[in-house]
Amino acid sequence: MRELGVGILGFGTVGAGVVDCLQTNSDLIAERVGARLVVRRIADLDIESDRGVTVAKDILTTDAEAVIQDERVDIIVELIGGTTIARTLTLAALSAGKPVVTANKALLAEHGDELYAAAEKHNTDLLFEASVGGGIPIIRALREGLVGNRIVSICGILNGTCNYILTRMELEKLPFDQVLKEAQEAGYAEAEPSLDIDGLDTAHKAVVLACQAFGNPVQMNDVPVHGIRGIDPMDIEYAAGLGYRIKLLAVIKHDGESLELGVHPALIPQSQMMASVSHSFNAVLVQGDQVGETLYYGRGAGRAPTASAVVGDVVDAARNVLAGHPRRVPAFTQQSIPVVLRPMEDIQSRYYMRFSLKDQPGMFAQVAQILGSHGISLASVVQKEARAGAAVPVIMLTHVARAGAVLDALREIDGLSTVGAPTIWYRIEDFGQ
Ligand code: HSE
Q1: Are residues 418 and 316 in the same domain?
Q2: Which residue, 103, 105, 139, 120, is CA-closest to 18?
Q3: Is residue 157 domain-resident?
Q4: Do both 166 and 293 map to the same domain?
Q5: Which residue of 54, 95, 184, 247 is surrounded by the most CB atoms within 10 Å?
Q6: What CATH number is associated with residue 180?
Q7: Which residue is closest in CA terms to ligand 1's atom 4?
Q8: Would the pLDDT of 141 be above 90?
Q9: Atom of ligand 1 nearest to the CA of 189
Q10: Cα(206) to centroid(ligand 1), Å
Q11: Residue 262 — pLDDT band, cuts 50, 70, 90?
């Protein structure tokens, strides 16, 4: 049987998972592909540590360039991460005409244009299923299964760390800092958690998804990002009392004229399937104009699920090499529809607002009056009893309102001397409910 050589750059958790998957399912994959996929070289700065998989010592090297240039290596897997060395090596591999499989969402979100152009120029494949949603084949679903659709919306829970923290905060009624600390101690959250909890990782994934659906004019700078740092358990509890759950969402919506794009915590009705996505799981809800709603759910991170997605791409690359036909499916959706981003102020949504009001006559009416004067209509109002000496929490859910009007109204309200603390507000994603 013919063999194809795989070269892996980066022998960390996912790299070891890829080797494990290719070894464990070697015969099965060989039968399906019609060629055996053999890991011929692996590059990493550390070639001594035990990764829990058996590889011949002589395939390990610290020289990544040597792996790219090795004639016996047909497909390169980039698992280094980051946007510097990974970019240089990916470009080098594409320039050598070798297909590259990567899990690197930051690299794609920040240098996607350059990498797509290089893949096109050198007539080779750039594949990145593992960059979004770990083991969930969401890129393939958008690129192939749903290619006959105009994409109406994509909403994703795309960061396992954030979802894990929010789930534990809700179930155990714990504060953000404590859950984050425990998650770090247990190895669920990174020691430097900012990329995850401040929403950047989700934003990188949102850009990759938006490029799949709408072509690649979508850039990182276009995405307003709000993470989950500092979410108060009080809001999770009040939201639950009103029938909602707070999740960090990537929201991508096209109304036929403009594209709404953002990452933010949002309230989701508990009756929606997206609200049931708990702990470190990911889910993506895609609406196409023909298919309607489709939902993809699974493990968004971790060694084996991510390796599953990487190996899927390696197989795709191998099939194209065998067929002598690279780029059968282009790296991103080719389309000439101009993507006009909707200004943040023009976004229409329902809102959750928690006001901290001093316990004085007329306060409540004053807030409602200001909201009304900005055209914001109330759907539901709850006032909690004040704890001794503290401000009174008043929770209001609005009907659909323009974000610009909400910002203006809250600026006015928070300027009142009788408001004890800045108003907390989140969007509500009803998913058409
Ligand atoms: N750190 C990510 C998460 C996984 O917590 O979901 C890799 O993108």
Answers
A1: no
A2: 103
A3: yes
A4: yes
A5: 247
A6: 3.30.360.10
A7: 301
A8: yes
A9: 5
A10: 13
A11: very high
Residue 251: enclosing H or E segment and its boundaries? strand 244-254
Both 82 and 130 in one domain: the answer is yes
Q: How many whole angstroms from 127 Cα to the centroid of ligand 1? A: 19
- 329 within a domain of the structure (yes/no): no
Give me the domain span that covers residue 238.
150-299
What are 225-259's pLDDT values in tens digits?
999 998 999 999 999 999 999 999 999 999 988 99
Ligand 1: which atom is nearest the Cα of residue 105?
8
Residue 283 CA to its chain's centroid (Å):
9
Structural domains counted in the chain: 3
Q: Contact 47/61 with Cβ under 8 angstroms?
A: yes
286 and 316, same domain (yes or no): no
Which H or E run contains 268?
strand 259-269
Residue 257, judged by CB atoms within 10 A of its CB (0-12, 13-18, 19+), counts as: exposed
pTM of the complete model beyond 0.85: yes
CATH at 62: 3.40.50.720
Q: Is residue 274 located within the same domain as residue 356?
A: no
Ligand 1 pocket check for 201: Cβ under 6 Å: yes
- Mean pLDDT, the chain, integer: 95
What SS3 class is residue 394?
Answer: strand
Considering the domain architecture, whether residues 292 and 174 belong to the same structural domain is answered as: yes
Q: Which residues pair with 285 in a beta bridge?
A: 155, 295
pLDDT of 35 over the 80 cut = yes
300 lines ligand 1 (CB under 6 A): yes
Task: Average the pLDDT over 416-429 and give the result.
Answer: 95
Ligand 1: centre distance to CA 126 (Å): 21
Among the listed residues 63, 109, 86, the one whose alpha carbon sits nearest the alpha carbon of residue 14:
86
User: Is the Cβ atom of 197 under 6 angstroms away from ligand 1?
Assistant: no
370-405 pLDDT, tens digit per residue, is: 999 999 999 999 988 777 667 899 999 999 999 999
Q: Which amino acid is at 268?
A: I
Report CA(202)–ligand 1 centroid distance (Å): 8
